[in-house]
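Case study B.
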Amino acid sequence: EAQVTQNPRYLITVTGKKLTVTCSQNMNHEYMSWYRQDPGLGLRQIYYSMNVEVTDKGDVPEGYKVSRKEKRNFPLILESPSPNQTSLYFCASSLKVYPPDRHYGYTFGSGTRLTVV
Amino acid sequence: AQSVTQLDSHVSVSEGTPVLLRCNYSSSYSPSLFWYVQHPNKGLQLLLKYTSAATLVKGINGFEAEFKKSETSFHLTKPSAHMSDAAEYFCVVSVRGSGYSTLTFGKGTMLLVSP
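Model:
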């Protein structure tokens, strides 16, 4: 089954303790992205990756890191989590997004609910 | 700059009545447009998408949307609401970057369906 798999689904951690949320897709998609969802703010893009070893900042990158060493994986790293990073996180992937006028739409993971205390 | 506005944060309907969720977009070119649905404690699921083919787009679960360039709108409709339609709906527009495109999400419309 074509899917995007995120782990863990739920995570409670303490301020400052480094954590990684994993994301893997089995569709051979070039493009992957991380979003956070907060009440009243909708979904905001954290980082995205156009392909292996190509990553760039989205709208809210502060406090996050990513890497794309393999096409299928795109982990999100919080080096020193803080309570304002408590949120629902989604990983998404899509086929290449060229040309710039067209987009194929994302396939989303099931989400990771992170609480930082 | 490209943007998307969902005109209602909440919409309440009775089961069996029509659904209308409104979305306006702003774009300097003809964008791709999408509607996603998110049920409670679930991920986002693609309902339908417009990518410059037919202006009336049919999606899953009886939903459809019409692209109206003159009104810069992409409203989502369904003739008869079902209890299982209760969820949050997101209108999404493609945004042109430097040689690529990404997606910008509206803030969402919560659809409430009463018996």
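Chain A has a mean pLDDT of 92. The remaining cases will be described in the next quarterly update.
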